[in-house]
Amino acid sequence: MLCCKVNAQTEYITNGSFEQIDSCAGNIANLGFDVFEWCGCKGWSNPIKSSSDLWCPNGVLGSLEPPNVGLGYQYPRTGMNMAAFFISDPFVRNYREYIQNKLNQPLVKGVTYEIDMFVSSRDNVCSISEIGVKFFNQRYNDTNALWLTNLVPDALNDTSNYITDSLGWQKITMQYKANGNENYAVIGCFADSVHIKYTMSNCDTSYWFGINLASDYIFIDDVSIKELPFKDPVFPNIFSPNNDGVNDIWHIDLSVFEKAHSVIYNRWGNKVYETDNPILKWDGRTTSGEPCHDGTYFYIIQTEDKTYKDYIQLIR
Q1: Could you give the C-alpha distances from 312 to 97, 240, 243, 247, 254, in angstroms and in order?
Q2: Contact call for residues 216 and 87 (beta carbons, < 8 A)
Q3: pTM of the model
Q4: Torsion over CA of 198, 131, 28 and 48, rounded to 10 degrees?
Q5: Residues 267 and 128 grouped into a single domain
Q6: Is the same domain home to 270 and 209?
Q7: Does residue 67 sit in the same domain as residue 170?
Q8: Is the dihedral of CA 277, 279, 284, 285 positive or negative?
């Protein structure tokens, strides 16, 4: 499948609002208990031993149903269900909870995706920003782990976008350029307790017996991953390779394509430069390194399914 022909309307997250379930536990999950699989919550699972939560009305534990869930007060953004995960050190350093989604279909190599989700903080006392997404080709499953702070997320919320809304829902948006064939997405906080930043001055970040007292509980709903609409690269038509530090390079980023063959000709049709590098940086010299004279040059760039051609004005 070529990078430029994906359907911009495809939704890759399965059951993004957590509404497709077989039954409802409606309670705080114990360690090692995958409440998503137990409830038959389509597409979702718990990747490690720590226990993220699924909140839904079950008609039995009425005191632990949205919006009164014991660890906060929140209505689902849409429908009747939502998920949540804890970020703290209650009994072990770097304790983290995560949720994992089996995507509707694998991601496509070279395509950039937009990741959207709506989140809400438990109480706006120790608000964090470091929510990220890690992609895997196979399901991630570690029944012993209580944290994933040893992993680097593939996409990360803007660190200045603190989750401070405890009454409504706050949108988080990230982008990710796929390596190809990613089938699972793990969502949570991958920052360790030493480096994590909290926004509130009254948040107690002191340590007792090596444990950070600060914590947050994040509600999450309406998760979405979609392809960003493809845009043609921008081709400047003038540059001045005179070593003054301004516009010295004719720079085109063609990395969105799997293949890109670029040829530049002078006004008489003679080839002066050629490359297969998808990051095109022409400094006004021939392929052999000789400076080109002022004048008009023409380029032809062939990708796997499209040809770009036009002129360039070189001014020294």
Answers
A1: 53, 11, 18, 13, 17
A2: yes
A3: 0.75
A4: -120
A5: no
A6: no
A7: yes
A8: negative
Return the CATH number at 273. 2.60.40.4070
Give every strand in the sheet of 295-303, ordered side by side.
238-239, 307-314, 295-303, 260-265, 271-275
Residue where a domain stops, chosen among 182, 208, 229: 229
Provide the domain count of the chain. Answer: 2
CATH of the domain at 204: 2.60.120.260
Beta strand pairing status for 250-253 and 279-282? antiparallel
Q: Are 134 and 153 in contact (CB under 8 A)?
A: yes
Q: 171 and 47 in one domain?
A: yes
| 187 and 293 both lie in a single domain | no
> pLDDT tens per residue, the chain (316 residues)?
334 444 447 999 999 999 999 998 766 778 889 999 999 999 999 999 999 999 998 766 666 788 888 778 899 999 999 999 999 876 677 899 999 999 999 999 888 999 999 999 987 677 889 999 999 999 999 999 999 999 999 999 998 899 989 889 999 999 999 999 999 999 999 998 877 887 765 576 665 555 556 788 999 999 999 998 877 888 999 999 998 889 999 999 887 787 899 999 999 999 999 999 999 999 999 999 999 999 999 999 999 878 999 999 999 8
β pairing state of 307-314 and 238-239: parallel
Comparing CA positions, the residue from 37, 54, 49, 136 lying closest to residue 94 is: 49
Distance CA 280, CA 239 (A): 14
Are 299 and 161 found together in one domain?
no
Sheet holding 132-136, edge to edge: 44-45, 98-102, 184-188, 132-136, 155-156
159 and 281 inside one domain: no
Same domain, 303 and 192: no
Question: Which of 262, 261, 269, 260 lies closest to 297, judged by CA?
Answer: 269
Q: Is the Cα torsion angle 92, 97, 102, 106 positive or negative in sign? A: negative
* Last residue in a domain, options 180, 199, 229: 229
